[in-house]
Design goal:
mainly beta; five-stranded antiparallel beta sheet; four-stranded antiparallel beta sheet
Length: about 190
């Protein structure tokens, strides 16, 4: 059992209320941020997805970018029309600098290390969420634009960096669950 809870407690006024798995389906992702709950000098680093340029869907899991993988899948019909070019790039969102060799990340901004900023510009791409499910051990969010699929996922079946405290893959504490943990919020400024 974890000594420190994995989830942050969020308080009104920013939180809209509980979220069902069907709420984000059909909405455009217009932003992603894994620094919610931060004041600019660190913080609990919660993940949030801005939907339709307005409200945010927040996972109040502390340091969530070290748990979440982002996969970009692309299909291109080749000129001869009989073959497809399929590209798949799956990486953890972020990892500690000493773990980058084993866990290349999409977005990395630790002081003293070169930044990595390769996540898509969701405000421009605006993929539509066509699948979302949350489970006790994680979640899966699929969004599409044309033949491009963007997938955010977390689960015990996916690789993740060792957690500094245990020196093993990070696990949720006894009784903790991602299912039902997502919350819609008015904006990205959260009260912990």
């Amino acid at each position: 059992m974890a000594d420190i809870p994995s989830f942050a407690s969020l308080r009104p006024p920013g939180i809209i209320g509980p979220m069902t798995d069907d709420w984000p389906v059909g909405r455009h992702i217009t932003g992603y941020n894994h620094h919610h709950g931060s004041y600019g000098q660190g913080g609990v680093r919660l993940s949030g997805w801005q939907l339709n340029g307005g409200s945010w869907m927040v996972l109040p899991l502390k340091y969530s970018a070290n748990w979440i993988t982002f996969t970009r899948e692309g299909l291109t019909l080749l000129a001869d029309a009989f073959m497809l070019d399929i590209t798949i790039d799956q990486r953890i969102i972020d990892a500690h600098p000493n773990q980058i060799a084993d866990f290349p990340s999409w977005d990395h901004r630790f002081a003293g290390t070169p930044p990595i900023e390769e996540l898509p510009d969701f405000a421009v791409a605006r993929p539509v969420i066509d699948h979302f499910e949350s489970r006790p051990d994680g979640f899966r969010l699929d969004a599409r634009i044309g033949h491009q699929i963007y997938r955010f996922a977390m689960g015990d079946h996916l690789p993740r960096p060792d957690w500094a405290g245990s020196r093993g893959a990070r696990m949720l504490g006894q009784g903790e669950s991602v299912a039902g943990a997502f919350l819609p919020a008015h904006d990205c400024y959260l009260t912990l």
